[in-house]
Amino acid sequence: MTAAPSLRPHPGAQPRVEEFSALLTPDLIDRYAAGTDRLERRALDLTDSQADTFFRAEAGVGRWSCRVLAGHLADAEIVQAHRMRRTAAEECPVFSVWDENAFIDAHLYGGERGGAEHPIAGFVAVIHTTRLWTSRWLQTLNTETWMRRALHPEKGEMTLHSLLAITTWHLEHHAWFLSRKLERLLGPSSD
């Protein structure tokens, strides 16, 4: 089995949600399916100390540690996959919001005793598996399903297409920060 070609981390500017919203549905599904390729594999090589290093705001790489970032992405993938499935199945479902900082404060990704009991590889496995399962399902949907709507308390009405665009962007947005954190911790990538 050969590995999928890497999309490579974004070399420059952060990805913008508008670029994802403009994609045609088949292209957006492909981008969603390949999104895990944006996560640098070097994150799996971090020591526990490196994985749990938080950053100052002035570092410009986001404040979360690599372990917290990976845990957040795993939770977000689960939430977003469920939202997409609800949008396809239910009549205009209303989503609830979740407090990402409460998850961190509750040490769901490690913390009080260190993060070794929550390996980054486990979070990455959740992300990869959820994307694989969801992308295959998304490929089966008809045009009418993509127009179905849901209501987000903060973002307002969303179509299934716009929900997929935000979900796809979200991972790549955080992968951009992960790459910069890894540069700080490990130096530039040799790829």
Characterization of this structure:
With 191 residues, the chain is mainly alpha-helical. The protein has one domain (23-186): Up-down Bundle (Four Helix Bundle (Hemerythrin (Met), subunit A)). Helices cover 51% and strands 4% of the residues. The chain has 8 helices and 2 strands. The protein has helices spanning 17-21, 25-33, 48-51, 66-89, 100-105, 120-138, 143-146, 160-186, and strands at residues 149-152, 156-159. Strands 1-2 form a two-stranded antiparallel sheet. Strand 1 (149-152) and strand 2 form a beta hairpin. It is globular and about 50 Å long.
Order of helices and strands: HHHHHHHEEH
Instruction: State mean pLDDT (0 to 100 scale).
Output: 91
Number of structural units classed as domains: 1
Q: Which overall shape is indicated by the principal axes computed on the Cα atoms?
A: globular
Specify the structural class.
mainly alpha
Text of the CATH class: Mainly Alpha
Largest sheet: 2 strands, antiparallel
Helical stretch tally: 8
Q: Strand content of the residues, in percent?
A: under 5%
Counting DSSP E segments of at least 2 residues, the number of strands comes to 2
The CATH topology assignment is Four Helix Bundle (Hemerythrin (Met), subunit A)
Distance between the termini: 21 Å
